[in-house]
């Protein structure tokens, strides 16, 4: 199957899913992917279509960059503009460990207290140089919520509802 056909199918599925959940989607995924790859050239290994409170429909790209780093780039579906870039780091790296004041277990408890369910994955990231834990939580209703917990303050940051995912984080 050619790449353009796959991209068009994904965009259509997201649009239909978003409309079915009373969310609107007005922007092409291709524009977001180009913007993400312009920021961090490399290989897109996964794509998630998500709904973020206050922002609406977004695309999240996991990119293995030509710089050897793993990037998570978020783009507003409506405008095609990148609004957030995070880099995955080793939890034992100095850049994460030296700044983190909250343990992963404390952050996990905070996330699960607010969004009960099963933690599917945990990522350690630097967002604008600040350490964050990111939990993918599968809730009892079947929805998957992505919850960020600030590793310095222990407060919940962004939360996003996953609508669709292609690839593997």
From TrEMBL:
Signal peptide: 1-20
Residue ranges of every copy of the PepSY domain listed in the record: 29-85, 101-156
InterPro entries with a match to the protein in the record: PepSY
Domain of life: Bacteria
Any single Pfam family the record assigns to this protein: PepSY
Alphabetical UniProt keywords: Signal
Protein name from the UniProt record: PepSY domain-containing protein
Organism of provenance: Methylophilus glucosoxydans
